[in-house]
Specification:
It contains 5 helices and 18 strands. Strands 1-3-4-5-2 form a 5-stranded antiparallel β-sheet, with no helix packed on it. It has a 5-stranded antiparallel β-sheet with strand order 14-16-17-18-15, with no helix packed on it. Strands 6-7-10 form a 3-stranded mixed β-sheet, with no helix packed on it. A hairpin with a 4-residue loop joins strand 3 and strand 4. The longest helix is centred in the C-terminal third of the chain and has 19 residues. It is elongated.
């Protein structure tokens, strides 16, 4: 197809780090031309064959910065680089390596971003009534991240794989059993106190104001079935006795979890 000269910009060149092939996402180095509609193709012009359509590289995958302390280029990337960093975008390690080689970025100076962690209390935590949650906040930005204990320890021990100087660490002893109102107020007070100590707001918003997250409902109540509450044993017999409710809604025999047989009960309705 003929394209007027005023509709095409020819004989451009990239050293890499700007484009990748549309078909197989391979980083592109070489001549290229652009059309009036923004589409980009390999080759000096439309007569230069074979050619492939090109796409601009995602700025997320390549974000080189300069560390003034060491004077070397570094690149920050997530710990789990194969996973989504933001919805719909992934970091490709092959592209990162190619980009670093082209731009002479020192791979030994790479630093890991602390990955976000979603905790899950254990049965032992529920017996105790609380568990420790680990966090960090960037010193120069009100950005909070919940951490695994492992990453928290690495940052605390000044692990050189992380830019630990950029973060302040703290923990929350998160209450998960007891009277619901008391649990809510206790966790609310903890969050408010941490924000006051840090001199920065944002933790409550980061936690979405969910101060009873992981809370085991009815954990502060002594529950008893008189045989007419609709709870039955696996053999269909009406259950009489104390029972407790797990976080996922499972109802079991006994006042407290782990102190008896913990037989699963079924709730039936008339």
């Amino acid at each position: 197809m003929y394209i007027p000269k005023n509709k095409i910009k020819t004989n451009q060149y990239t050293r890499g780090g700007e484009y990748q092939t549309l078909l197989n996402s391979i980083p592109y180095v070489g001549s290229y031309y652009t059309l009036y509609n923004g589409r980009i193709f390999s080759g000096v012009d439309q007569n230069d064959q074979p050619q492939e359509e090109l796409l601009k590289l995602s700025p997320l995958a390549f974000n080189p910065t300069t560390d003034p302390a060491i004077g070397n280029k570094i690149q920050s990337y997530t710990f789990d680089w194969q996973l989504e960093t933001i919805p719909g975008q992934y970091q490709n390690m092959d592209l990162i390596t190619t980009y670093n080689n082209i731009n002479s970025i020192d791979m030994t100076k790479l630093t890991l971003l602390p990955p976000n962690h979603s905790p899950l209390p254990t049965d032992e935590n529920y017996k105790v009534g609380s568990f420790t949650r680990y966090f960090c906040i960037k010193l120069n930005e009100p950005i909070f991240t919940e951490l695994s204990k492992n990453v928290y320890t690495k940052l605390k021990n000044q692990d050189s794989n992380y830019d630990w100087k950029m973060y302040r660490l703290f923990v929350l002893i998160w209450v998960i059993t007891g009277d619901e109102e008391d649990v809510l107020q206790t966790n609310f007070n903890q969050v408010a106190l941490v924000e006051k100590r840090l001199g920065k707001k944002g933790l409550a918003e980061y936690l979405k104001g969910n101060y009873i997250q992981f809370y085991a409902r009815n954990s502060g109540k002594i529950l008893y079935s008189n045989g007419e509450s609709g709870l039955v044993l696996p053999d269909g017999t009406a259950y009489i006795g104390y029972y407790h409710t797990m976080l996922d809604g499972t109802i079991m025999t006994g006042k407290y979890h782990g102190r008896g047989q913990d037989i699963v009960l079924t709730e039936i309705y008339d």
